[in-house]
Amino acid sequence: MKISREKIGNAEVRVWRGGKGAPLLYLHGFEQHPGAAPFLEKLCETFEVCAPESPGFGQSSGLDEMHDLLDMALHIRAVVEGWDRGAVNVIGHSLGGMFAAELAVIAPHLTKRLVLVDPFGLWLDDEPLPDPFIQAPDALAKLKWHDPATVKDEPSAFDQTTDGSRHTFRTINLSAATKYLWPIPDRGLARRARYIQAPTLIVHGESDGLIPLRYSDELAKLIPGAEMRRLRDAGHYPMIEAEEPFLDAVQSFFLVP
Hints:
single chain; alpha/beta; Rossmann fold; 10 helices; 8 strands
């Protein structure tokens, strides 16, 4: 995949692009952009992939323009409009899943098919989510992964030569994420999910401790006709821990005739 810096409104963001085929937009999670991760490279074998870094993350500017979730959804709509490929397939992971769902609400004409992967967006009073911003590294790892011991190199857009220290990089990203997730990630998606028209698949790692499986079950009930796919032996990052079944689920859903 190739990286470019693109001006979108008043934001300048990094965008990873690659592949040929039907257009596919990938929206990353709350911790970081995965860069040219293996699962994205494999998606490029079938699709034309566009994977922008969200404003305020990594080296991308524009966080001060994002006053609320609607601003982010409008920013993503501008990304798709600038791509000029018409309606696109969309994958949103984690925080990116919240963004992807909001895009589908406000821009149904630009959202062909929608995959939400362990998405944030709901809040259940009887099963509150753990706060990801206060977790010690070991505790967060236990929440994120099915088996933390097997995860060696988490894909990341971090670049020591341009981003400074990894600690600074992580602080920048988490500070941006708090705008949408703190104190709780309820920004009204439960009220708006019924307006999603795109065929929707929700993929969820069964071992996710950050967002329990019940959250995706509830979201699937709110989105008309949504399908659920549970992946075993995977946590919050099923595209990493269960890459093959993840790709199989996504590709078979997007390639429906």
